[in-house]
Write a structure and sequence with these properties.
4-stranded mixed β-sheet; two-stranded antiparallel sheet; Rossmann fold; alpha/beta; single chain; globular; 192 residues
């Protein structure tokens, strides 16, 4: 199975979507040249965030122009995981502008997501920048809105939700990759 040029990747803050994207970055054919020390945030023993993030007030805005998006990577080629919470709000636009790329969605309930985001540092998280959410009420509202959009898009396209594990990766990416931990409240799906 040939990987696309990009996988547009979205999940709400605290959905653990970043750790899932990092696991997928281990697949053969992935381009991780967007990773740098400046684009990294660790939370205790967890890897936290790595690579470019797109969205309001982040290093890269959520603009849907191929040249702009690809400028976050130092090297061409390979499959790029293009991460943004804000893709959740414009999934139809992503699908229309990038019909040959894939869209991956991560779902975790609102309260669990907010609690993990807060535990991981909340507004003290150094990368990426969460200031666009203004305050904790704004973050809770955004999580609910983004999750709602994710679920509606998945329903509209009749996508099947599953747990993120080795068999899901093998089925969807045709590669073997060991997943050490799967969470009972986190589901993933992909539109190809």
């Amino acid at each position: 199975m040939q990987l696309p040029e990009r996988v547009f990747f979205t999940g709400v803050p605290g959905s653990r979507w970043s750790s899932i994207s990092q696991k997928l970055s281990e697949l053969d054919g992935m381009n991780n040249s967007d990773w740098s020390k400046e684009r990294e945030y660790a939370h205790g023993k967890f890897s936290g965030h790595k690579g470019a993030y797109f969205g309001k007030k982040m290093e890269y805005e959520d603009h849907l122009y191929p040249g702009y998006i690809d400028s976050a990577w130092k090297e061409p080629g390979g499959c790029k995981i293009v991460k943004s919470h804000d893709w959740a709000l414009k999934l139809d636009n992503v699908k229309n502008k990038f019909p040959d790329d894939w869209i991956m969605l991560v779902y975790r309930p609102d309260v669990s997501s907010y609690a993990w985001w807060f535990e991981a540092g909340g507004f003290s998280i150094e990368y990426p920048n969460y200031s666009a959410y203004n305050d904790h009420i704004g973050m809770q509202h955004a999580i609910a809105e983004q999750n709602n959009c994710i679920l509606k898009f998945a329903h509209k396209h009749n996508l099947t939700w599953n747990y993120f594990n080795s068999s899901w990766i093998e089925h969807n990416f045709n590669q073997t990759l060991s997943v050490e931990k799967s969470w009972p409240d986190i589901l993933v799906t992909i539109l190809k």
